[in-house]
Structures are given as C-alpha cells and as structure tokens.
Design a protein that fits this description.
The protein contains 1 helix and 13 strands, in the order αβββββββββββββ. By secondary structure, the chain is mainly beta. A 5-stranded antiparallel beta sheet has the order 1-6-12-8-9, with no helix packed on it. Strands 7, 10, 11 and 13 form a 4-stranded antiparallel beta sheet that branches. A two-stranded antiparallel sheet has the order 2-5.
C-alpha cells in the first residue's frame, strides 16, 4: 500500500495548481442615456451657427451673409450650401434658422480676390442667456503653393470692427481666439485669396462654441 502514496500526492498537487491558474473576472459597467431635443428647443451654445440675413429676410440677427451668391467672373457665382438646422425660432410670423455648417464654393481666377460678407455666424438668444466664446481652428489648411495667401477675416456684424484674421494656410487654433458673442451678436465672414496658378483646393475651419473663455479645444 505504501507504494501508491507518492502517486496520490502528485495528483493532489496538480489539482491545486490548476485552481490557482483559473481565470477570474471582476465586473464593472457603465450605462448611458442620450436625450436629443429638436432645433426649436436650442438655447445658449446650441443656438449659435451660420446664417445669411439675405437668404432669411427679417432674421433677428445683424446683417451678414449679404453676398452669399455674388458673381465672381463670367457667369460664375459663389455658392454656399448650409448643413443641418441646429436652432430654429419664430419671430413676427416667420421662421428663422441657424445651421451647423456651410460648404462654400468660390470660383476665381489667377490674381488677388476679396470675397466680402459671403455668410454670417451668429447667436440667437435673450438677454438672460449667457455669453459664449468661439474658438476657431484651421483643421484642414491649404497647402497648395499656387495659393500664395488665404485668409478668413471676421468682422463684428453690428459695429463693423475687425475681430480676427485666420490664416487658412496654417493648421491649428487661430490667433485671436476666443471671440466673444452675446445674445443677438453676429459675425460677418470675408475671404481674401491670392492665387498664382490654376488649382482647386479644399480647406476646413472649425468653430468651437463654449461657455468657457479659458478651456481651448484640442
């Protein structure tokens, strides 16, 4: 009988080692709910966006975007296509809208061009709504050497004062950010471009709207 004792001991040892190496899970979790309201409910930073007072006659924001379809050369005209409606309100029996984005097509020829007031960017609200701050970031710069200079120039649509000049050939957060907007304020958007050769280029500029004057977008 004594001959079998070591064998039994080895079997017991193997079982114990197997238990030590067993996989263990500690369970944690996160649950989330996202509630989305319509454009008519937008207030504060949610009611800031692009607009044209010429396309929406009587809008309760400063005159801006009066040249959104201006002729450049020949039969060519500026074309501005707005994106999704993010804020909508009614005034005097008319409905007005602010848009999340715009796509701008600017046909020009070689040389220097100044496209004045092609669209607006504004904040619809009441006196009790908070001040907002706009950080502007060039997310896709113009790198083509046939474009010698390209600037997006912003003016206060109420006073005509120049607010910022954004170099569209330099990626990153624009100098002069943030721009302050109070309810009822608007910005006039201009473009200044000098082209030295034939090309077709694309750029993208982000407008980050926040209640903070110190926390910048990445």
């Amino acid at each position: 009988m004594k001959r079998f004792v070591p064998v039994i001991a080895l079997v017991i040892a193997a079982v114990v080692l197997g238990a030590v190496n067993a996989t263990v899970f500690a369970y944690r979790w996160m649950q989330g709910t996202v509630s989305v309201a319509g454009a008519t409910a937008a207030r504060g930073v949610a009611c800031v966006g692009f607009y044209s007072s010429a396309a929406q006659n009587g809008i309760t924001l400063p005159q801006a975007g009066t040249n959104y379809n201006a002729q450049t050369y020949g039969t060519n005209t500026i074309s501005v296509t707005p994106g999704q409606v993010v804020c909508q309100w009614t005034s005097g029996g008319s409905t007005y809208r602010l848009y999340e984005s715009i796509s701008v097509d600017v046909p020009i020829t070689v040389g220097s061009w100044y496209i004045k007031d092609f669209y607006g960017f504004g904040y619809n609200g009441t006196a009790s709504d908070p001040t907002v701050y706009i950080y502007i970031k060039v997310e896709q710069p113009i790198t083509d050497t046939n474009i010698a200079t390209a600037n997006l120039i912003l003016y206060n649509a109420k006073t005509g004062a120049k607010v910022a000049v954004i170099d569209l050939k330099t990626e990153g957060l624009a100098t002069g950010s943030p721009i302050t907007l109070n309810p009822g304020d608007g910005l006039q958007l201009d473009l200044s471009i000098r082209a030295t050769g034939e090309t077709s280029v694309t750029f993208k500029v982000g407008f980050y709207v926040t209640y903070s004057s110190s926390e910048t977008p990445r």
